[in-house]
Specification:
Blueprint (H helix, E strand, L loop, with lengths): L7 H5 L6 H7 L7 E3 L5 E3 L4 H22 L5 H12 L1 H11 L1 H4 L4 H5 L6 H19 L1 H11 L1 H9 L5 H13 L4 E8 L6 E8 L3 E7 L2 H17 L21
Amino acid sequence: MDEAPTTLLPGLGYTFRDPSLLEVALTHRSAAHELGPRGRRKLLPDNERLEFLGDAVLSLVVSEYLWTALPDAPEGALTRARASLVQESALADAARSLGLGAALRLGKGEDRTGGREKPSLLADCLEALLGAVYLDGGLEAARACTLGLLTSALATVTSEDPRDERSQLQELLQESQGITPTYTVTAAIGPDHARTYEVELVAGAGLRALGRGSSKKAAARDAAREALRALREGRDGPAADPEVPVDDALKEA
């Protein structure tokens, strides 16, 4: 195997029993068809199947970690946290920390056009690498590698408030002013299959915020997010009637 992949091993924290798995994980499809010494075209296995497997391993390990680390977080908060950890930019950053770009096996055209720095290519290769670790060493090895690569990102996510914006706002207003925000649907625009809702939030006599979303719940969360932003910036919304009732459609939202 080429010398370059061995430089990954210290940062990855794993030694392959079957180095051919690592070699496949580092082979982009652009390198799958190369001309041999006598002009014969050789076929190399690429990393797309390993990427498929690694994507599932990554999702499982991150979901398991968040379930344990955020015991009070609702499903929506867990989903958002996982999405931020497995998004392309986060995986590309982890790949760069390994020096993965330099170790990639690319076709000449992909290499010339900066393939070693492309976030999508780096992220896909990192997933393939995790798939290879899983096949070579099992779930425990894949878990250790995944958590090691995402240590900083995991620490950032788990240090944030896992509650959704409506819960955060209600707790803040109850503690500071003894009041509860109310939410009213003020508009529903568009056809049934692509409707946008507008929700007005009112708290006391001085805080008002508008939110929009593809569902009543999403619009209410958007309004709560805007109200939290206003409070943190030390500003109130326009004066509002404190007696505006809670819209029946939102009581269970």
